[in-house]
């Protein structure tokens, strides 16, 4: 009898907007003729209304349950007047007031919604006062909360159109959306967050404010949880996606323990939500809970895919997108064992490791089977396997690799030789974070015999496998025994516990010789690599160099290469703010070590901060080589070594080069190409940028210089003046740019041309007490905070930006330039003075040049020049 009551509403009234992002969820719901919809009783989008709706029956049922009726008048556009009068008669007889309540005080509307009487509830909603729509029953639930619990999305939309507040909280602080996430009902959640469409705007109750949908997703319940935390905890991935698409903050932390959605998913092992959060929402893996733990740190103690130490080549290939996101977090990378500081026997084959080093040589690309087909001889089945990130193909005894298969895919990978960073000082090695626990590593160890593999060709051509007989093993072992370890490692300077790796790179990237990189990759320690080579055209010398024992030179299959790491902004701002105080500490130490010479200490600080910032034609801007002379070498023969000892406590990379006549003639300072073994033989000057080179000339004597000595001399001169080293490729030469600060310590002016010479002004008291001065300086630097501040100061100031845009300063420089030329000073000295003023300003923490610092630099240069003997 009440069907006509709803005829004034169009069918579309019960549709709410279909957002494009959710069409895949509702392709079945939109079609009202769809026969297999799983929950037709909850399909508020259906175009067929309940034909059995009878308000009289519903109200009588309500009264028979012991409830007191209160008369309320309905109004509506009813065409049948008699039907309308009958409705009014029923209402006048049954309702005696504004509300019908149970003995507990629950309103009729709340009871109707809980009973699932959708048509009755919708009729009441349109005539019920606004206060009742947001009223809580005795259980602390509003009509919207009850509609969610009853899984009635149609009633939810009716309530919202009538003015119900979607942000109303119940007795536990939960909004209706909290409850939707708790019970995992996607339809009710979508009804709560979808904005009104144009038709719904037409039927909005007059006088109410247009509801703001989606509602505030940052509301917390009394347990500090937002909707996204509840949906994640309940493993409802569709709701998590819906909330994030509606703008939920994936990094929001719940109030009790500070866990994010990712923390919660990791703790419960919800792989699908973890994958979604990593791939779609780009969640930040460095966010910590109130206990200071990241999601990854929690994953280490759980069985989730986040544990980076468990990765294998197969796992990485299958989950590459997820893994790449995890690799973007530098804090997580610290959990990977560091190859630099642990012996190779503590690692297992195919283990994920880190290696920090310098690119010493680059080889031609090598070809390999990116994908290959394997035949199972027992079952006569075929399988495709990946050849990426491994050197040996997986092949069990009952399997055969089909090298002629059309499904095989050949590809190429770049190879380079990466060695431990030359000149890296011990204190910097200790700062490398590493996962170095033998028990943890040994837990994953297994017998290499478990992997019964067949070797996969990895060179310039793909050829069939060959069996290795005992004679070939003996031949290889004999060849290796004739070559020294030093020759194979090919370090430019001695490196304690140094390592070399053959790195195989699968992605295209721009790398250059002598560049410092950090490689994340799978280590290959397969002993078969020591025996088999893949190119019969290679000479024995070439085989020895390119296929060294894996126990000496392991292979590293890179999945990520880090070329540079930016300084922490907080540390940079902190250091710059107290730069002058740190400079005072550094100046105090250096001036005492330089026999009380404060001017020399100023110049040495500027030298330590120097770095190439621009190259123009033949000029190299920013470099500031320094020659310190006239120290008491007879009385203190060890002064150069003593000074170097203190300097390598302050800078990350340094090397002391003692220049004697013998060393000048015999040392290999220049890298040279060895075509017999097809590799670049390193030289002493093959150093990475910002490696401080201290040259000690105190042992140099007169004598005959050989051709090699002249080449070495020219190489040092080019390094100092132009910051470049010319590599010898026998048939041609190639110039490589460098950024190596050079400090020369000599009794008199260096035989190597150096523009800036500072003659020490010895303080007699400091000279007599020099032994005590060294001890005091050592004690002074034992203050860990002071030492760290100085180290950070030298690193950060060196890389700081500098501007010269003050017109007054520029005019002052121009005036001084004119005066400088009038007294016949060399123009190069003016260039040197500009560099000095820049470095001096930076040393005080100033990123711009002021007149004060310019005048100070001029005064320093005048005083330095006055110490030099007059030219005859």
UniProtKB/TrEMBL annotation:
- What are the subcellular locations of this protein? Nucleus
Q: Name one GO molecular function term.
A: chromatin binding
The record's ANK repeats, renumbered to this chain, cover: 139-171, 223-255, 257-281
Gene Ontology, cellular component aspect: nucleus
Matching Gene3D superfamilies, A to Z?
Answer: Ankyrin repeat-containing domain
Q: Which GO terms describe its biological process?
A: DNA-templated DNA replication
Which PROSITE patterns does the UniProt record give? ANK_REP_REGION, ANK_REPEAT
What does the UniProt keyword field contain?
Answer: ANK repeat, Nucleus
- Family membership noted in the UniProt record: Belongs to the MCMBP family.
**Name of protein:** Mini-chromosome maintenance complex-binding protein
**UniProt organism field:** Apis cerana cerana
Q: What is the lineage of its organism?
A: Eukaryota, Metazoa, Ecdysozoa, Arthropoda, Hexapoda
């Amino acid at each position: 009898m009440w069907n006509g009551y709803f005829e004034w509403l169009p069918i579309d009234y019960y549709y709410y907007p279909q957002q494009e992002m959710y069409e895949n969820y509702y392709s079945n719901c939109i079609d009202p003729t769809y026969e297999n919809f799983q929950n037709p009783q909850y399909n508020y989008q259906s175009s067929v209304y309940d034909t059995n709706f009878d308000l009289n029956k519903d109200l009588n049922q309500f009264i028979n349950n012991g409830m007191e009726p209160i008369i309320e008048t309905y109004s509506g556009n009813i065409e049948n007047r008699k039907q309308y009068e009958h409705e009014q008669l029923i209402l006048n007889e049954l309702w005696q007031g504004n509300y019908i309540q149970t003995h507990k005080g629950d309103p009729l509307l709340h009871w109707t919604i809980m009973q699932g009487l959708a048509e009755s509830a919708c009729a009441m909603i349109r005539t019920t006062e606004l206060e009742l729509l947001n009223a809580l029953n005795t259980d602390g639930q509003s009509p919207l909360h009850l509609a969610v619990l009853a899984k009635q999305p149609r009633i939810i939309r009716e309530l919202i159109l009538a003015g119900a507040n979607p942000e109303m909280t119940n007795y536990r602080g939960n909004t209706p959306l909290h409850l939707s996430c708790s019970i995992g009902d996607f339809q009710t959640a979508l009804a709560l967050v979808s904005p009104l469409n144009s038709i719904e705007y037409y039927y909005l109750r007059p006088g109410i404010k247009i509801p703001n949908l989606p509602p505030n997703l940052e509301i917390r319940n009394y347990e500090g949880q937002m909707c996204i935390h509840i949906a994640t905890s309940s493993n409802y991935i569709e709701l998590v996606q819906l909330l994030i698409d509606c703008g939920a903050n994936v990094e929001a932390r719940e109030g009790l323990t500070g866990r994010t959605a990712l923390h919660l998913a990791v703790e419960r092992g919800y792989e699908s939500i973890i994958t979604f959060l990593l791939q779609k929402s780009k969640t930040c893996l460095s966010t910590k809970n109130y206990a200071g733990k990241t999601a990854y740190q929690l994953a280490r103690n759980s069985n989730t895919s986040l544990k980076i130490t468990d990765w294998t080549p197969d796992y990485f290939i299958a989950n590459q997108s997820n893994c790449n996101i995890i690799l973007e977090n530098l804090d997580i990378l610290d959990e990977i064992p560091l190859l630099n500081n642990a012996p190779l026997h503590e690692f297992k084959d195919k283990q994920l490791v880190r290696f920090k080093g310098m690119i010493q040589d680059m080889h031609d690309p090598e070809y390999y089977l990116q994908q290959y087909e394997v035949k199972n001889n027992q079952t006569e089945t075929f399988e495709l396997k990946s050849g990426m990130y491994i050197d040996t193909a997986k092949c069990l005894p009952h399997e055969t690799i089909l090298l002629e298969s059309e499904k095989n895919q050949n590809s190429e990978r770049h190879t380079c030789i990466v060695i431990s960073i030359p000149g890296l000082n011990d204190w910097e090695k200790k700062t490398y974070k590493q996962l170095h626990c033998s028990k943890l590593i040994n837990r994953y160890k297994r017998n290499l015999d478990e992997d019964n593999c067949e070797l996969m060709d990895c060179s310039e051509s793909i050829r069939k496998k060959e069996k290795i007989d005992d004679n070939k093993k003996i031949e290889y072992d004999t060849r290796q025994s004739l070559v020294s370890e030093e020759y194979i490692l090919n370090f430019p300077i001695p490196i304690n516990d140094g390592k070399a790796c053959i790195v195989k790179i699968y992605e295209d990237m721009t790398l250059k010789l002598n560049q410092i990189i950090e490689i994340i990759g799978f280590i290959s320690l397969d002993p078969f690599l020591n025996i088999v080579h893949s190119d019969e055209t290679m000479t024995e010398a070439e085989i020895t160099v390119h296929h060294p024992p894996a126990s000496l030179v392991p292979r590293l299959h890179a999945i990520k290469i880090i070329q540079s790491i930016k300084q922490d902004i907080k540390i940079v701002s902190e250091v710059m703010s107290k730069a002058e105080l740190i400079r005072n500490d550094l100046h105090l130490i250096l001036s005492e070590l330089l026999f009380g010479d404060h001017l020399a200490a100023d110049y040495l600080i500027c030298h330590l901060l120097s770095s190439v910032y621009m190259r123009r034609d033949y000029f190299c801007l920013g470099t500031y080589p320094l020659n310190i002379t006239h120290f008491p070498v007879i009385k203190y023969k060890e002064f150069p070594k003593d000074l170097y000892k203190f300097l390598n406590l302050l800078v990350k990379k340094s090397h002391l080069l003692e220049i004697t006549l013998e060393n000048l003639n015999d040392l290999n300072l220049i890298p040279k190409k060895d075509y017999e073994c097809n590799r670049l033989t390193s030289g002493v000057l093959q150093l990475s940028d910002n490696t401080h080179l201290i040259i000690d000339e105190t042992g140099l004597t007169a004598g005959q210089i050989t051709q090699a000595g002249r080449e070495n001399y020219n190489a040092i001169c080019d390094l100092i003046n132009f910051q470049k080293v010319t590599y010898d490729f026998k048939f041609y030469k190639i110039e490589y740019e460098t950024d190596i600060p050079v400090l020369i310590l000599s009794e008199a002016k260096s035989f190597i041309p150096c523009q800036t010479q500072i003659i020490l002004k010895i303080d007699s008291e400091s000279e007599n007490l020099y032994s005590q001065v060294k001890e005091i300086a050592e004690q002074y630097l034992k203050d860990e905070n002071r030492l760290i501040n100085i180290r950070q100061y030298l690193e950060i100031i060196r890389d700081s930006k500098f501007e010269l845009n003050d017109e007054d300063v520029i005019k002052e420089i121009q005036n001084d330039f004119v005066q400088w030329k009038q007294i016949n000073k060399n123009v190069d000295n003016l260039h040197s003075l500009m560099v000095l003023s820049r470095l001096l300003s930076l040393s005080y923490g100033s990123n711009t040049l002021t007149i004060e610092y310019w005048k100070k630099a001029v005064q320093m240069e005048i005083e330095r020049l006055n110490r030099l003997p007059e030219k005859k």
